[in-house]
């Protein structure tokens, strides 16, 4: 019998994927994997090396020597890039506004996709991203497509800001919409709902409601597959 499943959560920026995935993982005693953080770490590394997203050959070389580790912590995960803790650094605006360009590169996607599949190989994983249900874990037992209106997603992200990283709401909304568009229209593994994913618009839902809904779906899958 199967006692653990993999849960894939995909959707656009600010839908609540990481907040919800972290809590679902905690409730089920599963491990949370934030794949967006991996694309962000590669972006930081490339920027530090002065490599632009269009420099495919240089990016390829950089990716071959990539040393990236995810360390689960009590509250989420720590991102180690060549043994440096970059968990906070990868949230910068510089990374956020450029990451979708780097994420469109085929070597980057191949390398990170392989790492993600390896991380999920023993099940008991809640993984969030853009292409988890469609490309990385097409066999995940439970797939969720989490979304909310772009206005609501921008509002949520705006609330997280403080004085030192303040951006006007309108600008944040435009940046989120631009990133969504890049992610949805790229050639390789674009952001799209998997056919067998459960669609969830969280515009009018609380975090707790979303979490308990997904946990219930997970528990019924567990009962289903272990029969
Ligand atoms: O948290 P937020 O929604 O702002 O973004 P994220 O999940 O950290 O992902 C950052 C970017 O990485 C996305 O906009 C995508 O361009 C890319 N990404 C991807 O291409 N595939 C994934 N599985 C995860 C992230
Ligand atoms: O990972 P993703 O970009 O999809 O979203 P996130 O980084 O989890 O950010 C979502 C933000 O909206 C967080 O500040 C949450 O507290 C908030 N939020 C939510 O996630 N879900 C709701 N139903 C309502 C608010």
Choose one word for the global shape: globular
- Largest beta-sheet details: 5 strands, parallel
Tell me the Rg in angstroms. Answer: 17 Å
* Mean residue pLDDT: 95
Oligomer: single chain
Q: Can you count the beta strands?
A: 8
Q: Structural class given helices, strands, pairing?
A: alpha/beta
Molecules bound to protein: cytidine-5'-diphosphate
- Strand-residue proportion: 15-25%
What's the SSE pattern?
A: EHEHHEEEHHEHEHHEH
Strand order of the largest sheet: 2-6-1-7-8
| Portion of residues within helices | 40-55%
Distance between the termini: 7 Å
Model regions low in confidence, pLDDT < 50 over at least 5 residues: none
Alpha plus pi helix count: 9
Domain Cytidylate kinase: 7-217
Subcellular location: Cytoplasm
Family: Belongs to the cytidylate kinase family. Type 1 subfamily.
InterPro entries: Cytidylate_kin (IPR003136), Cytidylate_kinase_dom (IPR011994), P-loop_NTPase (IPR027417)
Tell me what the structure shows.
- The chain is of the alpha/beta class and 227 residues long.
- The chain is 49% helix and 16% strand.
- The chain contains nine helices and eight strands.
- The strands form two sheets. A five-stranded parallel sheet has the order 2-6-1-7-8.
- A hairpin with a 2-residue loop joins strand 4 and strand 5.
- Helix 1 packs across helix 9 and helix 2 packs across helix 5.
- The radius of gyration is 17 Å and the shape is globular.
- The model has no long low-confidence stretch (mean pLDDT 95).
- The structure holds cytidine-5'-diphosphate (2 copies).
- One cytidine-5'-diphosphate (CDP) binds next to helix 2, helix 4 and helix 8.
- This is Cytidylate kinase.
- Its EC number is 2.7.4.25.
- It is found in: Cytoplasm.
């Amino acid at each position: 019998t199967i006692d653990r499943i993999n849960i894939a959560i995909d959707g656009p920026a600010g839908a609540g994927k990481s907040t919800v995935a972290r809590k679902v993982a905690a409730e089920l005693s599963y491990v949370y994997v934030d794949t967006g953080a991996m694309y962000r770490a590669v972006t930081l590394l490339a920027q530090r090396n002065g490599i632009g997203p269009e420099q495919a050959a240089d990016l390829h070389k950089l990716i071959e020597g990539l040393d990236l580790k995810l360390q689960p912590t009590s509250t989420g995960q720590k991102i180690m890039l060549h043994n440096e803790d970059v968990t906070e650094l990868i949230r910068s605006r510089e990374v956020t506004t450029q990451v979708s360009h780097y994420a469109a590169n085929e070597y980057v996607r191949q390398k990170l996709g392989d790492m993600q599949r390896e991380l999920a190989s023993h099940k008991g994983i809640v993984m969030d991203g853009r292409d988890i249900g469609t490309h990385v874990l097409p066999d995940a037992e439970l797939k969720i497509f989490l979304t909310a209106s772009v206005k609501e997603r921008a509002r949520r992200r705006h609330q997280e800001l403080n004085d030192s990283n303040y951006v006007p709401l309108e600008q944040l909304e435009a940046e989120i919409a631009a990133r969504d568009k890049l992610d949805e229209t790229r050639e390789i593994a674009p952001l799209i709902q998997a056919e067998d994913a459960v669609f969830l618009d969280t515009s009018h839902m609380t975090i707790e409601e979303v979490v308990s809904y997904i946990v219930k779906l997970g528990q019924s899958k567990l009962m289903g597959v272990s029969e």
